[in-house]
From TrEMBL:
Signal peptide: 1-17
Gene3D superfamilies membership: Tetratricopeptide repeat domain (1.25.40.10)
Lineage of producing organism: Bacteria, Pseudomonadati, Bacteroidota, Flavobacteriia, Flavobacteriales
Intervals holding TPR repeats: 23-56, 127-160
Pfam family, one: TPR_11
Protein name: Uncharacterized protein
Top-rank taxon: Bacteria
InterPro entries: TPR-like_helical_dom_sf, TPR_rpt, Ycf3/AcsC/BcsC/TPR_MFPF
Keywords: Repeat, Signal, TPR repeat
Length: 348
């Protein structure tokens, strides 16, 4: 009797292992199809995986994501609910992201925010939950709440390009310096992409904001009233009014004869050095996310003499001959810069 029981156990164990192996193979094929944009093909693979290994968590999670990508939001919600119900004690971070994202797509904002928050309570250090919650707020024009979510995501993962991009876009209308810092950091973590090209253009527009040449010897500098500090002595959170004013003065010098002869990158370096010097000079007494997290990074960049390397990284996709020549001659400087950036202590 004991022998029969043992043989039965071994048979069941062997069958389970085979099913699990077959499911893993199907899931791998599904992931490949998803990455190629064949979401329906991926869904079919995940469904087959679940036929041979019922309630496989990875298959459920990947299927929910592909259903989202295919626009099948109600089905994605059903799969996500099932995964949470059948795997209450396992890692469900991405399941919560897929679940809430599907609700957001269906314009069920309050329900989506509830699920994001439920996920955050269980996985407070998963930056994607904070980021996607921020996207949900953005989709509903709740920009202040969105920015706070993106900031939380960056506190967890300072290399998250999506959060840097979102902050830059949301801040560029009324907070020039934070936007420049966010876009600049973005160019370091995600160079040579469509988004990086767009964000370099955003930085260039922000650097020259309010500057207009009216004639050979006449320049107008318009200061945005939102950038000016009030007359009270009370410090405001993330107040960069002094840095902003100094940048405007520096940008007005673009039309000076000695600067007019410089390359575009050289003038970029000049203005960025002004920004970083102003950050260092005015940091005392200032506070807020950007002062405490982004400003120290760029101040150290200046002190380490890496602004030139950063500038040529920012312009790497330009067609300028001088940029190409610099990159060919200065690989060691690029290596030093990236090693410094990689090892930078974000808890300063």
């Amino acid at each position: 009797m004991k022998l029969k029981t043992l043989l039965l156990f071994l048979f069941i164990s062997s069958a389970y292992a085979q099913n699990q192996s077959e499911a893993e193979k199907l899931i791998g094929e599904g992931v490949e199809l998803h990455d190629k944009g064949d979401y329906n093909g991926a869904i079919e693979k995940y469904s087959k995986a679940l036929e041979v290994d019922k309630d496989n968590l990875l298959a459920l999670s990947e299927k929910a994501m592909s259903l989202n990508s295919a626009g099948k939001y109600v089905e994605s919600i059903d799969v996500s609910k099932h995964a949470i119900l059948t795997h209450p004690n396992e890692d469900l971070k991405n399941v919560y992201v897929n679940y809430a994202n599907a609700l957001d797509h269906l314009k069920k904002t309050d329900e989506a925010l509830t699920i994001y928050q439920e996920g955050i309570q269980k996985y407070p250090n998963y930056y994607q939950l904070h980021f996607n919650k921020g996207i949900c707020y953005t989709n509903n024009n709740r920009y202040g709440e969105a920015i706070l979510c993106f900031q939380k995501a960056l506190l967890i993962n300072p290399k998250h390009a999506g959060s840097l991009n979102a902050i830059g876009i949301l801040e560029m209308g009324s907070h020039r310096i934070p936007a420049i810092l966010a876009f600049s950091r973005f160019l370091i973590v995600e160079p040579q992409t469509t988004r990086s090209k767009k964000n370099l253009e955003n930085i260039k527009k922000l650097l020259s904001q309010g500057i207009q040449q009216n004639g050979e010897k006449s320049i107008t500098i318009n200061i945005n009233s939102n950038m000016l500090s009030d007359s009270s002595d009370v410090k405001k959170e993330n107040d960069f009014s002094q840095v902003d004013l100094i940048l405007s003065m520096a940008s007005g010098l673009d039309f000076d004869k000695k600067n007019a002869k410089k390359t575009e990158v050289e003038n970029f370096i000049r203005k960025f050095e002004v920004i970083c010097s102003a950050l260092q000079e005015t940091k005392n007494g200032n506070f807020g996310f950007y002062w405490e997290n982004l400003a120290p990074y760029f101040i150290e960049m200046k002190n380490k003499k890496f602004i030139e390397a950063f500038a040529y990284i920012a312009y790497v996709d330009s067609d300028s001959e001088d940029v190409g020549k610099w990159h060919k001659k200065n690989q060691s400087e690029l290596d030093k810069f990236y090693n410094w950036s990689k090892d930078y202590n974000w808890k300063n």
